[in-house]
């Protein structure tokens, strides 16, 4: 055990209890390990030893880890009009990061053709149905938490569908 003031990085707490006589000023606080604290009260001559004791156990896991991309979206995706595309991005971090998707710098929202899926182990997916030429561009998976931000980007290319021209000749 050690006695003394609370040092940096420690948490201290003093609990008050009703007693017939107040405890002497400066009654000691005893520290047990780094996460346990016990308050004891001194007895005075002619007074029975106080029976009230308080024990507090503190457990903190306050580590913050910035987001990391653990599986990148492909750098380039090439598809044809009308196809479906799924972009998948794996992220980690503490606390678990929130994930958003953007297209050419604009945040995406769910719609008839766009949907978002959060899977196990930090995997996030963007589903695009019925891709058109206007969907081409830069798609980003952005992971954020209190410790930072990470992102992964993919360029989607959708060439226009060539429709053969019908040529008619009249003689």
UniProtKB/TrEMBL annotation:
It holds the Pfam family I-set. Keywords: Disulfide bond, Signal. Transmembrane segments: none annotated. The keyword Signal applies. InterPro entries: Cell_Adh-Cytoskel_Orgn, Ig-like_dom, Ig-like_dom_sf, Ig-like_fold, Ig_I-set, Ig_sub, Ig_sub2. Residues 67-157 form the Ig-like domain. GO terms for biological process: homophilic cell adhesion via plasma membrane adhesion molecules. One of its GO terms (cellular component) is plasma membrane. This is Ig-like domain-containing protein.
């Amino acid at each position: 055990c050690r006695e003394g003031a609370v040092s940096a990085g420690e948490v201290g707490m003093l609990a008050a209890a009703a007693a017939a006589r107040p405890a002497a000023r400066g009654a000691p606080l005893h520290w047990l390990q780094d996460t346990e604290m016990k308050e004891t009260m001194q007895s005075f001559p002619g007074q029975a030893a106080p029976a009230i004791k308080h024990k507090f156990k503190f457990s903190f896991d306050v580590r913050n880890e910035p987001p990391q991309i653990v599986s990148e979206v492909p750098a380039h995706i090439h598809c044809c009009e009308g196809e479906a595309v799924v972009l998948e991005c794996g992220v980690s971090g503490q606390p678990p990061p929130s994930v958003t998707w953007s297209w050419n710098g604009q945040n995406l929202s769910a719609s008839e053709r766009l949907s978002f899926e959060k899977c196990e182990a930090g995997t996030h997916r963007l589903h695009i149905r019925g891709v058109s030429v206007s969907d081409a561009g830069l798609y980003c998976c952005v992971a954020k938490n209190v410790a930072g931000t990470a992102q992964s980007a993919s360029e989607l290319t959708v060439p226009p569908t060539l429709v053969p021209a019908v040529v008619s000749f009249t003689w």
